[in-house]
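Lab notebook, page 48
Experiment: co-folding of the full assembly
Goal: obtain a model of how the components sit together before planning crosslinking
Operator: M.T.
Materials (sequences as entered):
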Amino acid sequence: MHEQMLYFLQQLLNGLTVGSAYALIAIGYTMVYGIIGMINFAHGEIYMIGAYIALITITGLATLNITFLPVVLVIALVLAMIVSSAFGWSMERVAYRPLRGGNRLNPLISAIGVSYFLKNYVLLAQGSRDIGFPLLIKGSWTFGDPNGFEANFSYMQLTIFIVTIVCMVALTLFISKSRLGRACRAVAQDLKMANLLGIDTHKIIAATFVIGSALAAVAGMLLGMYYGSIDPEFGFIAGLKAFTAAVLGGIGSIPGAMLGGIVLGVAESFTSAYLSTDYKDVVSFLLLILILLFRPSGLLGKPEVEKI
Amino acid sequence: MLAKRLPFAALCAVLTLVMGLPILGLNLTPQGIHIVLKSAPSATFMWIALGAAVVFLFQLFKDYLSGFWRQVPLPKASSFTPNLEGRKRIYAERAGWFLVAVLAFAMPFFASRGATALGNLVLIYVILGLGLNIVVGLAGLLDLGYVAFYAVGAYSYALLHQYFGFGFWEALPISAILAATFGFVLGFPVLRLRGDYLAIVTLGFGEIIRIVINNMTWLTGGPNGIGGIPNPTLFNMEFGRIVKDPGDTLFYKVLGIEYNSNHKVIFLYLITLVFALFTVFVIKRLTKMPVGRAWEALREDEIACRSLGLSRTGIKLSAFTLGAFFAGFAGCVFAAKQSFISPDSFNLYESVIVLVIVVLGGMGSQVGIILAAAILTMLPELARDMAQYRMLFFGLLMVLMMIWRPQGLIPMKRTPVELARE
Amino acid sequence: MLEVRDLSMRFGGLLAVDGVSLNLNEREIFSIIGPNGAGKTTVFNCISGFYRPTGGEIQFNGHAIHSMPDYRIARLGMVRTFQHVRLFNRMTPLENLMVAQHHQVNTNLFAGLFKTPSYRHREQEAMDRAVYWLKKVNLLELANREAGNLAYGQQRRLEIARCMVTGPKLLMLDEPAAGLNPRETRDLNELIVSLKEDYNVAVLLIEHDMGLVMGISDRIAVINQGRPLAQGTPDEIRCNPDVIKAYLGEE
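Observation: model returned without errors.
Model output:
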């Protein structure tokens, strides 16, 4: 195979990897937005906390001499999801629920406050320096000429794909089949009506935050391990990008968030490969502005009809 | 009653432990190439347990507490300002502003050098807060990248000086206008969008400006910043000991007094005060002008505005551009005061601090914002040991303000256009 | 002056308005009636530019307005009220009328900052117009109150005054009599006729109060399920068998 072709494939693969993790975070934004029409600025922080809890668990298990890999990974994943969900649930309860029904600006400001609070909470407890995240899933398949360019498909990347797909399938089944999922859809379509029909909308909104946070924690653990280090600031840029992904796919639409994450991941990977790495973060932002300008309803979203 | 709340209270206590224990209790510490987990000191665990207990008790007795809480009256707007009718109120207000201005002008001649410098910083935040207040408080647009325009103003002066030898007074209007232009160009595409999109786009924009300044080393010196930015002069009189610009004279020589390094600090303070008062005046006037009325109307009902022929983009853009103008203005003053600027001075924290000033002071309220700027700037200076908790506290403050007092410490008091009775 | 040709509006799978045509002459009171959910307000929203119609053409005084943004249409002299009153609730009635005149006053920043003679003059004119219309709708006494605290009927009148102060050529009223008592409805009736007679305004009206509609309309269009059913003078509509069957017959 041509070297250039291999290089291209490698970038595509890297983009898909990061993009599928973005998709996991984007789901949290999109679900919350779909139901209460609010951008949860603190969602990136939940993702960062997920990564920290995973690392703390992995380090702790190593101290206890538990080294059987599947066990370590599963425990770390589950704990990260639980703690992140606790944060997500509490934040909705404390900072957003009391503000429901008021001025639109207030929950946004409150969300900024939560984001700063959580970031500094972790920063004060764990320090501001970045900490190495051990790559537990080692090894890879290589393709191409050993003397020229070699494309790598690591087991870590494979894991990210598998975990993401499992999460997506589980979420889709949950939303379409379960009672709670059906209630979620009802509330997203018409909150007032759902309330009149006896659905406990507060409970549904809380559930949305919990699901979104758990998925963000999964992404946090996967990306933390993939990148190899984490720090308290690491939620901010990821949050911004996942939000871009959600808007790109059409905010409020779950399949849109998945698609948007992957498109953004690939676009970003190609930018840093073929243009410049300095401005990698600038690209996703420019993409965001362009979508908002030319197709504010995103790739899969429905255009909004203003109620007059 | 209590038994009914018990399970929920227990759940909340458990959640507090879940959120507190792993992050506060177990610290990741690098040791050589490895990371080890260190347990936090036992006092930390005591605090976590205490926190969980407080949450438990609070949830358990919430109904009683909220009943008690309701009996504590909140201060109302009218308890701060005497309730006067029409004309009288306007005169009282003018007298109040005049008194504050006189005191502020007199302050540096009695206060220490440090206090004057701190006062100067407060005034810069007053300008920033009032500028952001146009955008957030008056026009109802959440701008999270306000610091970007502050940076544009500061770097405009620094670069104009470095490359073209501009002095402070030439650079001041240019900095403000450049920042306003940035605001206009960014605002034009995004202001058609709904409010929350604007928030995130401005958030991104604030970061992008910083990244760009950081990366364009050839122009801006990158992370090393730009130094040697001259202080303002007074009719070409410099306040240093020796002349920096050959065309200038020296203040102490012209006046024939002893050189005193305090003169410079006092002068800087005084011109910043003049600018702050100018800002107060302009914004006060704006609120009574057609554009101010349109901002308020747009906040009240956008659809009605459109049905009457008001262009929402145009009106929002005017607020966004004017807000950026004042940020640029403040940026130029900041650069002149510090003599040195680097991208670090313009990170997201600054945007958040200015936003906290607006939120705490009361959206739309000028007096409140001035007060909040003073409190929030002086507080970290007075409690230096607590400095590291500053951002944690600010985050908490934003949430608490939104829950308990979204209108701010001193809510905006409308002065409606009155129809004189015939 | 207003010509709507073959207007249609589709929301997803729902065809809310289908092939509606109207044309309005100067100084004419034209009513659109039809059962609830017939698409009357959607027609209004299309004409005033809040919705972009999916089909058809709208001409207003020689301008094609079907793809023009709402605020530009308003500036051409076509203003409207809303089914649910939309006032600037925390502002006073006087201020409501001042905001409406945004394009008649001097919005130049520097003129306002320095209070130039031209600025003062234009503000004073706007104030005089506002006072004139407040007097006309009997709200002058309440000029300094909060608009949101006015009684419902007063809010309705204020909304009409707010339209009139812009000096429109066509006034669109969306159920202006809804929620008014009989006396207020009679006053409204007089007001609308006076707007036509004394101020040369054409009125496009959506209304359920048949007494009002039949009494003041020059012509009436009936819409049913988004489609035009009949058009004509009040007498023609009263006798039209389709209308009786679809609309009046129900009651």
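Interpretation: The CA atoms of residues 176 and 328 of chain B lie 4 Å apart.
Next step: discuss with group before ordering constructs.
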